[in-house]
Amino acid sequence: MDINLILNKINFVSRYKEICLDHNDYENRLRGRNTKRYLAILKKLDENFSYVSKDKFFTLKYEYEAFELNLGLVINDGLVEPSLYVIRNEDWILYNRFDFISEKLHTGFRENFNLPKYKTEAEL
Predict the structure, then answer these.
(1) Contact in structure between 62 and 69 (CB atoms under 8 Å)
(2) CB neighbours (10 Å) of residue 67?
(3) For 38-79, how does the pLDDT look when each residue is reduced to its tens digit (9 = 90+)?
(4) Alpha-carbon gap, residue 36 to 51, rounded angstroms
(5) H-type helices in 46-114, by residue range?
(6) pTM, full prediction
(7) Out of 12, 25, 97, 112, which residue is the most buried by the measure of CB atoms under 10 Å away?
(8) Domain for residue 108, yes or no?
(9) Rounded distance between C-alpha atoms, residue 30 and residue 39, angstroms
(10) Within a domain: 21
(11) What is d(CA 69, CA 36) in angstroms, rounded to the nearest whole number?
C-alpha cells in the first residue's frame, strides 16, 4: 500500500495548506492552555476524543478492518500541531505531523506555511 498515493488522491497537502493560510494570525492568537475547555470543544465534534496527559495531546482513534487511524492534536498557546498515525496489523504505515507529511509530499511546504493558529475557542 502506497500511503502517498492515497494522500495525494484526497488532496491532503492543498487541504492542509488552506487551513494554514486561513488560520495564521500569530499576533492575535489565543494564548494559554486550557485543556479541559479544549477537550469539551473537541468532544462536541466527536465524543471519542480523549486527552493523554502524559504526552500532553488530544487523540481520536478509529478502527476500520485491519487499520487503526489516530488523529493527534497538540494545542497550546494558540498553535495547533496535528498529527496522523496509520497502523495496519501492528505495522506503522504513517506517523507524523501534518506539516512534515506535507513537506514529504511537496518539498518546501514547511518553509512557506506555518502551523495553524486560533484566535478564539470557536475558531479552534
Answers:
(1) yes
(2) 13
(3) 999 999 999 999 999 999 999 999 999 999 999 999 998 899
(4) 9
(5) 98-105, 109-112
(6) 0.85
(7) 12
(8) yes
(9) 16
(10) yes
(11) 24
